[in-house]
Amino acid sequence: MKKFLNRPEDFVDEMLQGIYRAHPQVTYADNDPRCFVTAHPVPGKVGIVSGGGSGHLPTFLGFVGENMLDGCGVGGVFQSPSAEQIATVTRYVDQGAGVLYLYGNYTGDVMNFDMAAELLELEDIQTRTVLGNDDVASAPPQEAHKRRGVAGLFFTYKAAGAAAAAMKPLSEVARIAEKTSARTKTMGVALSACTVPELGKPGFSIGADEMEIGMGIHGEPGIIRQKLAPADAVVDDMLSRILAEADYAPGDQVAVLMNGLGATPLEELYILFRRVAYILDLNGVIIRHAWLGEFATAMEMAGFSVSLLHLDEELAPLIAAQANTPFFQYLPQ
Amino acid sequence: MQQLGPVDLLGLFDRLAARFERERDALIALDSHVGDSDLGLTMAKGFAAARARVFELSDPSPAQIMQQAGAGLAQAAPSTMGTLMGTGFLRGGKAMAAHEVLDPAGFALFWRGFSDGVAARGKARLGDKTVLDVLDPIACAFESQAQARSDLPAASQAALEAAAQALDDSKSYMAQHGKAAAFREKTCGLQDAGGTVAWILADELHQAVLGAVAEG
């Protein structure tokens, strides 16, 4: 293992100490640094809380801020936050209008968020849950509810966050989140493995000349492992799987997210995006937004994911709305 | 003797806190074969918190005691088993709230809510070698005892016997969940640590019922 660390067991807490010093717009609730919240809650607004394991920055906590998330439960590396931490975040974030839970579809997270919701029911705090399940490779379309949540969750944060900022009620914010989630599809590919600091070595390996299409952001097995192909061929394979998931008509609009998994340079993301744009052009699909960079990583894994959000009249202005968080700032063009 | 009142129920949580403190090392040993050895610590901490929480309540109903115990467990013991036991008491309390009293029919509702809640939250099925393999027979025993209009000591006795039998039967199962699943074959023949917790619940419940009978 070759990482900048002090002690492996301090990885998450020291990361948080750095985040709080760098970004005064976020703070923590109830003296627990893992109960990550905005320093500026908006009275009367529906709160949006996410959470999950560490090791994916900017996901999840990086999007707590203006017009996206209000709070985040921070777990250990690749581990769920506890139900109590989620409940603590929720109590802080709740401004009387209820709270939307918006996070990736992983067993441990589902168990703890559901438990938190049940505890808060005793305190009359209303919650709703929408799961991110954009990872096309993780289950076939007829079992889409089993799919994992990956980088595309960013779009759902963005749309639901804008809806909540417009002071829509909890039922509306949840409906918009569900719709955005259903219209977001992601495919990922990995070139190398990642190491959890406390384990000290990678849990799997990928050969020097291999790639694994569909690998998850914790190293979950993908669809196929094959010889590394040219960038254009990799994009062609991934986009064909995404486009097969929805009926795109010429003139339809999308937002594109090109996400580095941790060790892939931006240059490569732009090389890949060039081909994504070419294929969308061929299909007559219009790119309204293209965001490239790191959004949901897997520690130092090399690889990338591409997410498409199929926009419509309702979602387009929400995705185009202003946002200001430690890891994502956007001003309408 | 037909029901456990709120005072008897507080006594049950006294018993459970003391019992899980005593069983801490035994549960750690059971869990260490295939899990991460934290079950004994989790349960001792969780039931101590549940006890503290229910003793703070003023004039509680049985359902409130059960639900607050569940909340205390879940908060103090944020492991899988702590969350599942917390869920069980929360859902069990909710399920018997309308019935109001903990007679055999009330306990049947409580244990069915407990068992189904754990199954839903843990996504487990019978035979997966989990706590559910002992919880479900406890619920079934109370259901048939309530139907037969047995008194409470007979019902809790039958539930304890069902739990002991189920725990023994589950030794031959193979684990499908959690860290134990990585050891699948190795788990054959071993007593399940989670199932042992459910058996302890049935045991202490029966002792509490007998204690309430003796006090008249």
Descriptive keywords:
heterodimer, A: 333 residues, alpha/beta, Rossmann fold, Hypothetical Protein Tm841, Chain: A,domain 3, 6-stranded mixed β-sheet, 14 strands, B: 216 residues, mainly alpha, Serine Threonine Protein Phosphatase 5, Tetratricopeptide repeat, 9 helices, globular
Description:
The complex is a heterodimer of chains A (333) and B (216). Chain A contains 8 helices and 14 strands. With 333 residues, chain A is α/β, with parallel strands linked by helices. Chain A folds into 2 domains: 175 residues, Dihydroxyacetone kinase, domain 1 (Rossmann fold), CATH 3.40.50.10440; 127 residues, Hypothetical Protein Tm841, Chain: A,domain 3, CATH 3.30.1180. In chain A, strand 5, helix 3 and strand 6 form a beta-alpha-beta unit. Chain A starts with 10 loop residues before the first helix and ends with a strand. The mean pLDDT of chain A is 96. Chain B is mainly α and 216 residues long. The model of chain B has no long low-confidence stretch (mean pLDDT 91). At the A-B interface, helix 2 and helix 3 of A face helix 4 and helix 5 of B.
